[in-house]
Write a structure and sequence with these properties.
Length: about 170
């Protein structure tokens, strides 16, 4: 293939893509970078090592057993690692919201704040570790509960835990 044929093919592809974007009212070629979750987990404990930036997780779980309900879980952590989907992600502060709800959609907890993907001294973007420590969290009944994570009011991921009533 000659260079002229290659450029012609490339221009044809761009035209087809542009027409497809217009007909579907979206823009693929001008995609805005988003944050995504690389890891989302419930655990007994989580921390970040200041020297290395490593995320430490102890006692990961997705199930809590209890004899009676409501039950108060004494301590747990929700740990998440956020990354940007491309290198053009802005390093500006983004809104972060975490909502815990039961299977019927009843909200038990909502936490909101900001998160930013930092850059190191060379300008390379790193990931962002977020740890939410939850003490004395009450679960009203057995069933599935969902932690949903929102960035800029858009749900990007979720994880569930199951509360099980033990036979007495």
């Amino acid at each position: 293939m000659t260079i002229e044929a290659f450029i012609g093919t490339l221009l044809s592809f761009h035209t087809v893509l542009y027409n497809w974007e217009q007909s579907h009212n979206i823009s693929v070629s001008k995609k805005v970078a988003t944050l995504k979750i690389q890891m989302l987990i419930t655990a007994d404990y989580a921390s970040v090592d200041i020297a290395t930036g490593k995320l430490n997780i102890l006692g990961a779980f997705s199930r809590i057993n209890a004899k009676t309900f409501p039950v108060v879980h004494p301590r747990m952590a929700l740990a998440l690692k956020l990354v940007a989907d491309n290198y053009n992600e802005p390093t500006t502060m983004r809104s972060l919201e975490i909502i815990l709800s039961d299977a019927d959609g009843n909200e038990l907890m909502q936490v909101s704040g900001g998160v930013q993907i930092p850059r190191d001294e060379r300008g390379n973007r790193r990931d962002a570790n977020v740890i939410l420590e939850l003490n004395a969290l009450e679960f009203p009944h057995p069933g599935i509960y969902e932690f949903a994570v929102y960035i800029d009011a858009q749900k990007i991921d979720d994880t569930t835990i199951e509360l099980v009533q033990l036979q007495q």
